[in-house]
Amino acid sequence: MPEIDTDRLRSLAIHSLAVIRGNQAPSGAYLASPTFPVYRYSWFRDGAFIADAMSRAGEVGSADAFFDWCRRIVEDRAGQVHALVARHRAGDRIPARDFLHTRYTVDGTDSPEEWWTFQLDGYGTWLWALDAHARRHGTDLARYADAMALTVEYLAEFWSEPCYDWWEEHVTERHTSTLAAIHAGLHAVAGRIEIPGPLAVSAAEATDAIAAAVRSQGVHDGRLTKWLGGTDLDGSLIACATPFRLVDPAGTTARATVAALEAELAHGGVHRYADDVYYGGGEWLLLAGFLGWHYANVGRLDDARSQLEWIATHATVDGDLPEQVSDHLLHPETLPEWTARWGPVARPLLWSHAMYLTLALELGIVPLEVVSR
Ligand code: BGC
After folding, report:
1. Is-contact 355 50, C-beta < 8 A?
2. Which of 165, 173, 194, 362 is catalytic?
3. What does the pLDDT look like over 201-259, one tens digit per residue?
4. Distance 121 CA to ligand 1 centre (A)
5. What is the DSSP letter of 251?
């Protein structure tokens, strides 16, 4: 890999900030990607990580605006949340399409397109990011109290339901990285004054149950598995350690998981999983960012810097970052069909920029305005 100097790394971080700012709607929503038609929506998952990066960078107003967008979405669906909980308690089998969606239009309406809408992780991630933002910047969360309580109610009721994963696949499974996001969100807010006592108890019970389920069904050969009861690996498992801390980042389970990923899926860029056929199954920049963040977190600073450099090498001359790159495809035969269907790989992808920015801040490539983990 060619050497990349620190000035280039820094200017890419500043460009990442600009890309994120430039693609935030007045409503606060972040477009997943402005140029890729099916990504011209805002996802709870992508958005929460993007807002987290902006919060770390000191872009308080941008993060606030996103969290307010989430707040309004959840508040507008209070009736739906209560009805879902009542149906669940009455023993109703709720179809996936009836749950809260994972992505919305920037104006906060449900997208009419067919999509894999039932994904729980983003709701955990927004609570996690909101709490971290409030602690970092001293934000008063009073206006979020209803939306936080509704989200806790929803997650505490439904955390054990199978749903689509980070990659919007495998709806019949319970995904370890989804559970880690829910765990992190519930754990972050359970003790906050905005959450009424009985809900705080449900949140604490759910986090204990999630941790126990992952311990007993989400570990194989000492490392985490993609879903409960399985044996496969997935790049998103990094997040179970960093940043979600479902497992101790320095502990044996995290070490074994990262070692297995390094052996099978991570070589600079990180593949999502071995059978990935989306655009040929290339290497994802945002996962390279998560891995670097994890390395930084456990003190592997040279490895962390290599991850940042790997991402930087895959920027366009203008500094834009794609979702994935195709120098090393797991299933090259599937690339043409995706290109014919949806055009070239999404670029810029705001989530890629967010993970680059987060890692650059962790490494002090750009001044860390507020030190927080
Ligand atoms: C990814 C999701 C992501 C979405 C928007 C999908 O291809 O699998 O994780 O949320 O794109 O970026």
Report:
1. no
2. 165
3. 999 999 999 999 999 999 999 999 999 999 999 999 999 999 999 999 999 999 999 99
4. 12
5. S
